[in-house]
Specification:
Elements lengths: L1 H32 L6 H4 L1 E7 L5 E6 L5 E6 L11 E12 L2 E8 L8 E6 L3 E7 L6 E8 H21 L7
Antiparallel strand pairs: 1-2, 1-8, 2-3, 3-4, 4-5, 5-6, 6-7, 7-8
């Protein structure tokens, strides 16, 4: 009986040791893998994208020293385009970790008061805009304009290079 008890104690100690060791590795992995939140300077620039339903195109111009703006307009291939766009001045924007919040003032007569807030995920802005009374909300995904333009130009150049190499059908 004494040998059996001693075996159980050793097994218990081994299990506890393995559990504690795995917890140390898990906590270390979490602590090491969490990137630092961005600074405001990292977000300065132009951001573009669409709402989830693709009925709103949005542009967000973030500046540090001058006025920042937020604009929404329905794409010109939709019936909503005839109603025009809505322009807002960003009077203040705050960052808490990865979360963003914008204070907006309507600049044109057709623009109603709205809120815009969300998160930066390292590559895009995952935002929500809506009426302050929460009567409506829309999700937006905005990408850095320079990133979209650079990737689009590179893709176009690749197509053009391939078309130059490809013999035309009249030459066959």
């Amino acid at each position: 009986m004494y040998k059996k008890l001693r075996y159980i104690q050793k097994s218990y100690v081994l299990y506890v040791f393995c559990f504690l060791l795995s917890m140390c590795f898990a906590f270390h992995a979490i602590a090491v893998s969490q990137p630092s939140p961005p600074t405001r300077d990292k977000l300065v620039g132009a951001w573009i994208g669409f709402s989830e339903d693709e009925l709103d195109f949005a542009r967000l111009d973030l500046n540090t020293g001058s006025a920042s703006h937020f604009v929404t307009i329905s794409p010109n291939d939709t019936s909503l385009h005839k109603y025009g766009g809505f322009v807002y001045e960003i009077t203040n924007w705050t960052m808490t970790g990865w979360k963003l919040s914008f204070s907006l003032t309507p600049m044109n007569a057709s623009a109603e008061p709205i809120y815009v807030s969300g998160v930066f995920n390292g590559f895009s802005l995952q935002l929500e805009m809506g009426s302050p009374s929460k009567e409506w909300q829309k999700k937006l995904v905005l990408y850095r304009e320079s990133r979209v333009e650079a990737s689009n130009k590179e893709a176009k150049d690749m197509i053009n290079r391939e078309n130059i190499r490809k013999p035309s059908t009249s030459q066959r």
